[in-house]
Amino acid sequence: MDKIKLKELFSKPITLLVAGAILGLILGLIIGWGIWPVQWTDASAENLRPDLQREFLRGAILAYDKTNDQSNALRAYQELGKNAEITLSELTSDLGSVSSEQVLKFSQAVAAENLVVEVPTEPAAEAQPAPAVKSLGKQLLLFGFLCLGVLIVGAALVYFFVLKNKAKSKTQPLAPVDEIETLAPEIPRKNVDLKIPGQEKPVAQFITTYMFGDDLYDDSFSIDSASGEFLGECGVGISDIIGVGEPKKITAIEVWLFDKNDVQTVTKVFMSEHVFDDPAARQKLESKGELVLAEPGKQILLETATLQLEARVVDMSYGEIPLPENSYFQRFTLELSAWKK
Q: How open is the CA angle 265-333-266, to the nearest 5 degrees?
């Protein structure tokens, strides 16, 4: 009987969410304090132990004595924050590697207040470092990790036990595309109010640009009717490269069309002049679809069961890095126009 009640209790989403939060908190504490403790780097000198602050200041004094750079001396002094004047005063009784003259010269450069410099007759015992205080930044970072762990575990439990079953009956085939922004913001994605001579107005029209250096270039667009009905998708992406290293040298760009009423996604490939004339490169890309030489103004047509997509090269240019001439694109702008058949 108890097992049945427990099973019913854990079948409720709110119970799973609370259990996930508790589990995430426990895991966060274990990871944050034991397995993967937070390490603080690039801290300012103000957060160092007192003995290390004095050592830091000695270095700044020696540097100023050699360079006479007052701006760097003042910057180093101010980095100690509220401990700056105290630390400088302590050096008068704990000179170490600096002399009293160097300390006095430095103090005059940074205009330290109420500082009396004198050479001690006997070396003073080094002050005991104060207990280290946990930084606020470290605490906030740890808290952020804990919150992230709670959210991830809770979301995973809700998805697997609640949402996944509901989604099974609603899935539909879509082309796998990545929503990655183009590196050419000066040519925005938008519908263009344009009519092609001899044809009716397209249901959707887009402009997309590849710029050299955009190694993740992969644009995709939804094709919808005037009433908002989803008809399919179209997109453009990298098909082939030449050479090695980064940025990638793109030699071929593919255009694809997905129709919700067709089982096949149609693809055609624009190729650079050098690669288009290379039999080995052509053979490698033939399986992707029809191969087309990229030229300004060149148009291709992709057709599916109920859609037509015209892709037109609006603008293009080749790169000039020492490689075969006209082998890779520096810039490539396409206009995509879709019609219902």
A: 10
Nearest to 106 by CA among 93, 89, 123: 89
User: What is the pLDDT at residue 108?
Assistant: 80
Q: What is the residue-wise DSSP string for 198-227?
A: TSPPPSEEEEEEEETT-TT-EEEEEEE-TT
Maximum alpha-carbon separation in the chain: 102
The count of other CB atoms within 10 Å of the CB of residue 93 is 15
Asked if 154 and 161 count as a contact pair (C-beta separation under 8 A), the reply is: no
Q: Which amino acid is at 59?
A: G
The residues that bridge with 254 in the sheet, in sequence order, are 237, 269
The residue written with tokens 């997509």 in the block is 309
d(CA 86, CA 127): 12
Find out whether 303 and 338 touch, Cβ atoms under 8 Å: no
Q: Which residues pair with 338 in a beta bridge?
A: 204, 309
**What is the β-pairing status of strands 329-340 and 230-242?**
unpaired
- Report H helices in the chain: 2-10, 13-30, 50-67, 70-79, 84-90, 100-110, 136-158, 164-167, 273-276, 279-285
Q: What is the spatial distance between Cα 161 and Cα 153, in angstroms, rounded to a whole number? A: 12
Low-confidence residues in the chain, pLDDT < 70 = 1-13, 16, 32-43, 112-140, 157-199
User: Please, what is the Cα angle at 77 between 73 and 78, to 5 degrees?
Assistant: 120
Please give the model's pTM, rounded to 2 decimal places: 0.45
Which tokens in the block code for residue 212? Answer: 């050299």
- Distance from C-alpha of 153 to C-alpha of 24, rounded to nearest angstrom: 6
**What are the domain boundaries of the chain?**
10-39+135-168, 45-110, 204-340
